[in-house]
Write a structure and sequence with these properties.
The structure is a single chain. This protein is mostly helical and about 120 residues long. The protein is built from six helices and no strands. Helix 2 packs across helix 3 and helix 4 runs antiparallel to helix 5. It is globular, with a radius of gyration of 15 Å.
Length: about 120
């Protein structure tokens, strides 16, 4: 039950607190920030990050395609950590927490109370 609580809280907060504002906001501003990191095709990679946070967070929360969704969200947090590498620790802390949780979920899986487990039981 503990893994389910962590998965739901972190998945929903990533999706609704970070992915949704990017999805409904000004993508050109976020893409400009991605361009400053040196990424080619910054609009494409801005959309990838947005979908990793929003869709990946939702998938982690419900426990569907959990491992790949958590891995993609975790990779996005690695980039966020790189973005904040020169900032005080307080600015890096949230990305580090999301990275740790998403990496753990990618390694452990969704647990018994998830859609992944329900699909596995039917197969």
């Amino acid at each position: 039950m503990g893994l389910t609580l962590i998965r739901v809280v972190f998945g929903l907060s990533l999706a609704l607190g970070h992915g949704l504002p990017k999805l409904t906001g000004d993508m050109s501003k976020f893409a400009a920030g991605v361009a400053q990191l040196g990424f080619p095709f910054p609009t494409f990679f801005a959309w990838c990050a947005t979908l990793a946070e929003f869709l990946g967070g939702l998938l982690v929360a419900v426990g569907l395609f959990t491992r790949p969704a958590a891995a993609m969200a975790g990779f996005t947090m690695v980039v966020a950590l790189y973005r904040h590498r020169a900032d005080p620790f307080g600015r890096m802390e949230l990305a580090l927490l999301y990275l740790a949780v998403m990496a753990g979920i990618a390694l452990i899986g969704a647990g018994p109370w998830s859609l992944d487990a329900k699909v596995r039981r039917r197969a």
